[in-house]
Amino acid sequence: MEGKRFVYLLGILSGLMVFFLLLSGCAGFFEQYNVYATGGQVSDKYAWEKLEGKVCVMGTRVPTGSEGYRNTVSNLLTAVLKKHSGNPQKGFDLISHTDFMNEVNQKGLIDEYIKMTDVYNKTAIFPKESLRLFQEEMGIRYFIKPVLLQLQQRADSRLSGFGLRLIVTRETITNLTAEVWDADTGAKLWEGEAGCAVAGEKVSEKRISPEKVITDAWEELVKKLLDTVKKT
Description:
Blueprint: H1 2-24, E1 31-41, E2 53-57, H2 70-84, E3 92-95, H3 97-106, H4 110-123, H5 128-138, E4 140-161, E5 164-182, E6 188-202, H6 210-231
Parallel strand pairs: 2-3, 2-4
Antiparallel strand pairs: 1-6, 4-5, 5-6
Helix pairs in contact: 2-6
């Protein structure tokens, strides 16, 4: 009986602590949000007029420890591109990384794909002959290569008592890049970088969704990409 009363009183005391901290402003509840994007054509010699035909989103290059987000980052980029594919241009035929890999497997092009990605991982260049082969076999004109530079999630207890975490500061940060490659010329046409950071103090254990942070970063970068194309 005494144990139950103690737990009950502890709950009331914890609630009162949070209430008075909020009332006095000591808790400092906040949410910070920052997003940025930069990008542009990398060469005047290989400038292009518009993004058209088949456009393929490739698998994401990720840092060690983030391998589980390899497909997620590509899929989120595909979703954002689909959202904007009709604006400002028409004729934007987008191929997701999943559909691309399925077709690579069906056409027996796995060895060529491994060769192409191995060369890229070592040199940051896609071999022209590999890009042309996938163009001939699958009709792809442009390849978009996403790279996840970092994805960090942190949680720190700013206020605790009686063994309970009353206020938790959570932060999720991501930085991404994307490159556009032309299968006709083997040239890299465009490169951009984006980042998003969200931080907030919460009483609950609810996390800040990394998928939402990645999506917001892609939104900014895709706008930059389409603005560049529209101006050429």
